[in-house]
Amino acid sequence: MMATCLINFRPELAHLVEDGLVSNTIRALRGDGRDPLPGDTLHLYTGMSTKGTRLLRQEPCQYTMEVTIQPSAGDVHHVMLGSKLLEQSEIEMLARVNGFNSAAKFVLHFQKTYGLPFTGLLIGWEPAPVYVTRH
Length: 135
Description:
Elements lengths: L3 E6 L1 H8 L5 E5 L12 E6 L7 E7 L2 E11 L2 E6 L2 E2 L2 H10 L5 H12 L3 E7 L5 H4 L2
C-alpha cells in the first residue's frame, strides 16, 4: 500500500521546489519509522502549520537512500550515500540541488541544525541523479 508523505520547505526554498530546481531533500529519519518509500506520494509544502500553508508540488517518490554527513576537514567534505563516499564534485551537486550555493554551506546547515555526524534520508521525486545511481 502506497503512503502519503508531507514535506515542508523553508520559504526561501519554496520557489526552487515549485519551479523544479530542487528535486530532492534530505530529512532526519522519522521517530516512528514511517519514512517515505519509492512509489509513495510526496506532498511538498511551504508554510505548514501556518495560515500561509501552500502546496508546491505533488510528486511520486522516485528514490530514497540513507545519507550520512560527517564533519569536514577544512575544504574536504565527507558525505556518504549508503556505504559509498561521494566525491567532492558530487557533494557540490547534491548541495546545489538542495538549494545551497556551496558544499560548505550545505554541511554547515546540517552541523547547525542537527549536529554532525548526521544520518538521514535523501528523498527524491525526479529521476535519480548520477551521484545516486552510481552507488
